[in-house]
Amino acid sequence: MTDHPPATTPDRRPGGRTARIRAQVLDAVRAELTEGGHEGLTMEGVATRAGVHRATVYRRWRDVGGLLVDVIDAAGEMDWQPPDTGSLRGDLTALNQEIQDSLVVQPSFAVALMAASFHSEQAARAQKKLWADRYAQCEVLVHRAVERGELPSRHTDAHSLLTAATAPVYHQLVLLRADPDPQLPERSAAAAVLAAAAGAFSDLREERA
Question: Which positions does the record tag as DNA-binding (predicted)?
């Protein structure tokens, strides 16, 4: 499908009736997407489920791409904080467990949204930004580990470490579509921590600076 930018940019924190309508519509998008996937997501279906006139939905979000973008933006507005267990291994294990839980619940909104992003350039851009923001937010896990002396160098590439720690969970559940392994969150975290402690994620450019 060809996406178009929304006619108007929704206020990120609207108030009153506007906020209620947005909440109703985005809840409807999540439900429709989870139940029927991207193929079953329509403006009319969302309007009906939300109890909102379809003209309102078209006027504000314009098309399905606009709805998906706002759902992703809303996820970025959530007051989410990275785990803080007192150790890097514990933090990464908790993060991986969160990711696994979101992917194995049936039906999984997280998986449905990832699939939808392949059909919408707007949604793909929004999701890429959301993930980049989340990984940047999680870099504090690595910075804390350096301060505690768990990692050998302040030049550890936090993004690379986080990617290595979380990638096996996505690979197992999204790419391979395998059954969840209850030990995978901790095993992946432990492997990443061992590799980081050995200097596998050192940023050589910064060390030379």
Answer: 42-61
